[in-house]
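User: Hey, my collaborator sent me this sequence without any context and asked if I could get a structure. I don't really work with proteins. Can you help?
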Amino acid sequence: MAIAHLGNQCCIYVTQEIGGLKRLAQLDLSENKLTKLPEEIGGLSNLTDLLLSQNQLEYLPDSIGC
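Assistant: No problem. I've predicted the 3D structure and written it out in structure-token form, which is a compact way to encode the shape of the chain:
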């Protein structure tokens, strides 16, 4: 299980390479300046926790969902 804590880092974007982190289970991107996420984030099949609070996201990619 892999965990990435990238909260409060003033990030303005996430690159599509995030999709290559297949073992990622927890991803904290809260308290950044994100306006969008790449579609590849939906391919993280082991992801159980995705924290996105306090960003400027207008929508989530179609790849994330039910």
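In plain terms: The CA atoms of residues 30 and 52 lie 4 Å apart. You can pass these tokens on to your collaborator as they are.
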